[in-house]
Queue: 2 jobs
Job 1
Amino acid sequence: MSTLGEATMTGQELFDYKIENDLKIEPKDWMPEDYRKHLQRQMSQHAHSEVIGMQPEGNWILRAPSLRAKVILLAKVQDEAGHGQYLYSAAETLGKTRDEFINELQTGKAKYSSIFNYPTLTWADMGAVGWLVDGAAIVNQVSLQRTSYGPYSRAMVKICKEESFHQRQGYEIMAQMANGTPEQKEMAQDALNRFWWPSIMMFGPHDGDSPRTGNAMKWKIKRETNDDLRQQFIDKTVAQAEVIGLTIPDPDLKWNEERGHYDFGKMDWDEFWNVVNGNGPCNKQRLQHHIDAHKNGSWVRKAANAYAEKNG
Amino acid sequence: MDSIYYDKQFNKMSEDNQGQVWEVFVQAKPGLAHKHVGNIQAMGKEMALQNARDMYVRRKEGISIWVVKLEDIVASSPEEIGSFFDPMDDKAYRQATYYKMPEGAKHI
Amino acid sequence: METSKNLIKLLYRLGDNTLIYGQRLAEWCSNGPTLEEDVALTNISLDNFGQTRAIYSHLAEIENKGKTEDDYAFRRNERQFYNALIVERPNGHFGDTIARGFLFDAFQLHFYQELTKSNNEFLAGLAAKSLKEVQYHVRHSGEWVVRLGDGTDESKEKIQKSINDMWEFTGDMFATDSAIDKLTEEGVAPNYNLVKEKWTKTVEEVLYRATLKKPEDCYMQKGSLSGLHSEFLGHLLGDMQYLQRAYPDSEW
């Protein structure tokens, strides 16, 4: 590094050099304002998704059908809180506090993954969420381990390591139910039917319709495009569904020998944007839950701060 | 002199906020150094220690924890990379490999 | 034979305590005052479920009726549960949960400490392992009692009321019946009077640090060892047992 003679390089030149050579950008390095803004938005959205994502699964902790299933689900949802925390703390290195991020979430200025605006109606949904939603998230997060911003990349490495059991937990539930009683199998298929399309839309709009993808790829914040990641996810999930005898609800799904990938049907982007824009079945419920918990905790935080001020 | 991350007002106590940022260091095994693993937010030392424990050693990752308030850490800045670190470049004589030992000398 | 019947009763008591307490704490998931606290409360919940599973598995072994840990959790009715009344109290606000938690965690601490001396190998082992967990639980809840007590005027008032409200359910933690008394005589179960003495001391110390008042002696609710509970337990079980009850022939 010393041979570079940074002293003679401008911030922009050094930034470009680092991006070009796959070196990480660190918090106190000079970075373009748009790069900072893009990361703040993406990382806080990622953190919010972990935190809001606790709710649909939290919905079944009290009703888990075995003690084993209960502790696994609880540990998983707890990990999500932990991952939200890792991500907030990585995002904070860009100059905003967690309180500011939370405020943006609660006032609707920041978004979270739309998938969590769907309800979890049966126990099989715990299977579908773990298998599909976590599965999709993992594909994205594995890719993000190579993101150009150091703290984000390190958070992703840690999160990927911890999440390795999450998808298996979901798939195990699906497998067990798919091979259980007819009622269980029906529940499993129904959960797959409801979560399949929202899951593959988690990767976001097609590359051509995703205005921010260009910069994000150029800056190596994103390392693979939405469509590439989606394809990876579909390719590996199809076989998993076959193994447990469930049917992916897409009549156009078929192997394309030439591409070496599965072709799949058209996604309903009207539905997607409708949910993003606040009209999903649970948008208001999820946000209100977060606001209520935050309000209920206000006197506790104040008390703890007052105590710390007196006693260190 | 600024923080290791950014120049910013830290959270004031006695308000409704998430507390202060504390950096967390975990010793994985006896004999190893404490290693930085991340941070947590907490109100006060005891809570910082407990939160670090709950957040970073859920999977038996360690046997000892240090927590340090972020605002108490002083960091060098990227601009100092030259003056701080380059002068060490030409001091190879600080490395053991710099020295020529007579052939046949052992355990030195 | 008699010993084993008595032991079974004690195991029900211990397993039900941690199950119901764990279930209550799990309700905090996504509701904590900070993310870190959310994780802390669910950690304690997980520890309690872990203890429950060890106890029920052992129960299944010595009852030898082909039951599993899940049969004990999911296939018993309100009147067949023997948990102490305090653990089924609703979460209320954070201070209520902390008050309940501290009073119970402190009980568990001293109970397990004494139980390590049990001449029953399983109980002594369970106690040694669980003791490490509850030492942390009582540190967590105790420090929160202190923080809230010595925090703001509002928090002091709230946590004092929480402690006062919870007080009438503390006596029942130390309740014994003829089965448990027999076990104490035999050196299997601890001396509950001794546990209570130590518990009282811990509670007084923490309340003092928290600048809070120890509640006046009052009438103590009882009945849990005969399976007499509050109305709240039935609702908790309704949620918890729903799937097992609705699909009795399914495996999960």
Job 2
Amino acid sequence: MAAAGRADPLGVHGLLVLLYSGVLLAVVLSSLFEREPHPERLSRYYDDPIKVGVALTMIWAVFGMFIGVWAAAQLAWPSLNFDTAWASFGRIRPAHTTGVIFGFGGNALIATSFHVVQRTSRARLADQFSPWFVIFGYNLFCLLAVTGYFMGLTQSKEYAEPEWYADLWLVVVWVTYFVLYIRTLARRKEPHIYVANWYYMAFILVVAILHIVNNIALPISLAHAKSYTVWPGVQDAMVQWWYGHNAVAFFLTAGFLAMLYYYLPKRAERPIFSYRLSILSFWGITFFYMWAGSHHLHYTALPHWVQNLGMTFSVMLLVPSWASAGNALLTLNGAWHKVRDDATLRFMFVAAIFYGISTFEGSFLAIRPVNSLSHYTDWTVGHVHAGALGWVAMITFGALYTLVPTLWRRERMYSNVLVEVHFWLALAGTLIYIFAMWNSGVIQGLMWRTYTAQDTLAYSFVDSLVAMYPYYIARTLGGLLFLIGAIVGSYNIWMTARALPLSRSEQDLPVVDDPATAPAE
Amino acid sequence: MRELFHRKLERSALGFVFAIIAAASVGGIVEIAPLFTIDETVEEAPDMRLYTPLELAGRNIYIREGCYACHSQMIRTLRDDVERYGPYSLAVESKYDRPMLWGSKRTGPDLARVGGKYSDFWHVAHLTNPRDVVPQSNMPGYPWLARNALDVDDLGLHLQAQQTLGVPYSDEMVANAARDAMGQASPDSAFADGVSERYGDATQISSFDGVTTQVTEMDALVSYLQILGRLTDAAYRGTVAEEQVPNPNN
């Protein structure tokens, strides 16, 4: 790549790949001379890749959220890009979305999936090398993506911006991930596959399908980063939003529901309220979501029948979504005193609430007449962040605070006060953000369609922009609080891993060899 | 009995995998495949012309700078959209767009029909520092576009890739891509005639940024902005009230 793309930004990426693999190779080689590991390790869970995954999750969280705050500030104070190309809004905006969705969310999903699949199957990860390949390969993809945007490399397909070579690389990583996951499941000592694993499997499989179909493109040459998608115009719009909406469904919902189904009952020490409800919501989400993408294209040149299908299925989606949220909240029955006292569990409780709110809002916004007001405005941005901050990030923090002490074998987190501080920063930040965006979105939508008594449009576009400035400042503040919370959380996790003594009690379930002794689910 | 079946399904990882793929495939297949087979999906517009190499290069700069993050190119079938921006967008108008740039957010106004509404000079001033012409604007400035020379050498490869994907560029257009890009931004030069010959007399040939000595990224981007909504006038025909195509010389 470095050689072929000398005259193109592709060359820079080639060098980056060389450097990245060089460093990893050096690490691998330097361990060649260490002592042979004890064979007994094979009877334990393989947790080292998860530790690295957790660290990367928090690094990406801070990076992605920082870029987000910066982008938000640029909308209020446009000179904050200092007239540089790489820092202008159009380039850092995908760096923010990729940083938080794929960097933060993706690493959290991979790390927790490795943890959950081992615990619920009571089996060690199926391979020694491939977990590392998945984690570092995936992060190379994220790195190529984000550095590419700063240089102006993008396909412009939202949430699928990376160019063809990064996309191909992700396919390789993803297939490895899938094979590793299925092989580990095949080793399970429990007869039934636990519900969290259904969601992780749906996440891995469907994201693969979406990624491949949406990213089929023809590069202008193998030495150039630029490519053209095979999908033209209206078909591209449909494919893109079929992808875009289901990236929300299977990346930002299914995978995080998997976290919810494992870490919430674990922390609350209560069994899942209803097994039947979890079956209903799983298949409902898997089937209905794939139809809903066209609600992003209401009143556009997309044929009417597709818009109507998208709207109908979006409304129906409320049933499985609320079944999941309700199932999670009812699981907390009998543990409400813990929700009051334990900020970690409260993170997950609030996440389930926000999941319920934002799925309701999603179905609502998908109704055509509502969408005519909300579409293209900040209301959509507010809706996304109700889901992203309130649901995805909160469930992740709750899961991480449950996972980290077990992983490093500590009694508890370094500081429960800091978890509490993080919780309130995150909640305040989210609320400020979404209230600002609800207000600005509704005002903007109304101003665009207000008519004077003489039947002419009452406001010019720039009038509606001027009305947005106070809200853009408020949302920057909300985002900043959330970012500070993430930094506090990272510090707390770091100190837990570094400063606390090893716990003496064995909290983890052991790997079982004999299926006869394995307790039923 | 469904319960019993699901308990069985839960015991087979591969069974579960196939069940997920089956359940998740239906929606996409039903909604996407017919878009290629139902003829009414994309209207006919025999007069529609192709992007010139310069406009295509400008489009790629539009993509590179992430303009689509704040500007849509899709006028919806809503009264206020149509009165603000012009006749609603037709599917045919983006049939050569790979990818489409319909957008999802209007932090700035819709650009589907911005072509011809402002002068070249206005666009250059606006892109260099938006607050010089719209004091309330929060759009970033793009002063470097006027400094960067446009890379015209690869344009043949771009057109060729589009041709492979089915965009009706002729071999002659592919072969002359770099010349035509230079020509469109250099009126009175020897290259300029070929542009009108290959892409039609209505093609705007102009020294977009006011500098004729070199072809810059600013030239390309402005040429693209000026063609938006003007590849075909299909959207102006057959509407309830016949509308006028904007004329930049008016």
